[in-house]
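Q&A log
Question type: sequence-to-structure
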Amino acid sequence: MVEGDYTAYVRGVLDRVFEDSRRYLEERDQVRDTAIKVSRDVIRLSGWAVTEYHKGDKGKAREYLRQAAEKAAEFLSLIKPYPELYYSGMAYNALSEYVEAAVFIAIAERESIPLPEELGVPPVPYLQGLGDVVGELRRLVLEKIRQEDFEEAWRLFRVMESIYLYLRGLDFPEAIAPGIRHKADVARRLTDDTKAFLVDMESRHKLTSLLNKR
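Response status: OK
Response body:
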């Protein structure tokens, strides 16, 4: 039972609650502004890493990936104290781009695939990034076909297919795993199209080789 003027008591409580809340929200707002800027750096550097790898400059790709890793670590340190930011679309978008670059380059180079805990990212953006890796692997498969390196093209395709099959097995609502179902659908289409094209081009290559021997 509150003694004395109850209205005064209520106002005292509200003064404290609103002052603490205002301080928290102002701090979060400042962190969010900074995090948005850093997230753009993560996205930009990750994209450059993938682009340079496709262009054949692995040194630049590695350097951009290293810088992306630094920015991702900075980004995570900013948002981890704030669940509203840590589990936001902004965070997922930036971190999935970083995952995409790191995993794609590892697969392309036959290296160990970095795990979520090694990259420091939550499961959802990691899975989102994996989904996007399928598209980058397709680009690399097409390049290997152009080079007539069908053995490597099939290796990369099998990785594409494996990622798709695992994504397809995740049957969770959008609220729990945002974007995953859509990425699985896209991966299915890319996988099917890539397999059909790869089979066709390899058959043509074998036929051409056979005819040239005659």
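Response note: The domain at 122-214 is CATH 1.20.58.2140 (Methane Monooxygenase Hydroxylase; Chain G, domain 1).
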